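The instructor's notes for this session suggest beginning with a concrete chain rather than abstract definitions. Hand out the sequence below and ask the class to guess, before any prediction is shown, which regions might be ordered.
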Amino acid sequence: MSNAFVRSPVLAALLLAGAGGCVGMRPPAQNAGPALSDKGIQVAVVGQSCSQTQEPDDDGWDLVEAQIEVQVRNGAPAPATVQRDRFRLLAPDGSALRTMTWGATDPLTVAGGASQTFDLRFMTHGGLECAKEMRLDLDSGITLGQAPVAFQPVSFTPERQL
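After discussion, reveal the predicted structure:
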């Protein structure tokens, strides 16, 4: 890395923020288990990190950041394509949050018989609470060939990070 990068306080903050993204991932406090499709593909929330910061200037709305580690196991013979930008985090208030994960628009391929793990990051003011149930809706985010694979949302309750 050149010294020009180190001298930029904005870039230094971004690098530090990105480096901390993997710290503190642990299994959810409660987990309903994986969602299984009729095509033999399984999706599970295997890790999570959730922080909730009270911000009094925003009329009592807390800033909530949830990072979720998702595992896709492809039991089908054909490769599956994962479109992470289609996944939504369903909050208890009914809102459906889009991921804020860098590179989420780039598809992932999971070969037949293989598995792959990836992280998704969500952030919002209000709607989410770290100690309440959340559901990950795949919203046609996994396909075999050109056909979307149907799943029920994956339910879990994160453990709040202090």
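Then share the key points. The chain has one domain: 24-161. The two ends are 33 Å apart (CA to CA).
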